[in-house]
């Protein structure tokens, strides 16, 4: 049971990290982001959850959004890249302390 909660906390509840990681490689739209998260990280974020996180990331300046026809294309900003690096460093240090 504790492992199940740990996985939940580090996947769905930290969705922003996975979104920023994928956007670091190039711009994308929400549907593709969700599919990439499922493929690479082996969990499937809910549609509304993904859109909510993208909205919050955009509102906070971590990503920008551009309309391309009916699709919204998201791109990581410099602020988003900095936040991703800080998150990665946090996890690296945590793993080191737990080892």
Task: Give an overview in words.
With 99 residues, this protein is α+β, with helices and mostly antiparallel strands. It has one domain (2-98): Winged helix-like DNA-binding domain superfamily/Winged helix DNA-binding domain (Arc Repressor Mutant, subunit A, Orthogonal Bundle). The chain contains 5 helices and 3 strands. It has helices at residues 2-9, 15-23, 30-41, 47-59, 78-98; strands at residues 28-29, 63-68, 71-76. A 3-stranded antiparallel β-sheet has the order 1-3-2. A hairpin with a 2-residue loop joins strand 2 (63-68) and strand 3 (71-76). The protein is globular. 21% of the residues are buried. The model has no long low-confidence stretch (mean pLDDT 95).
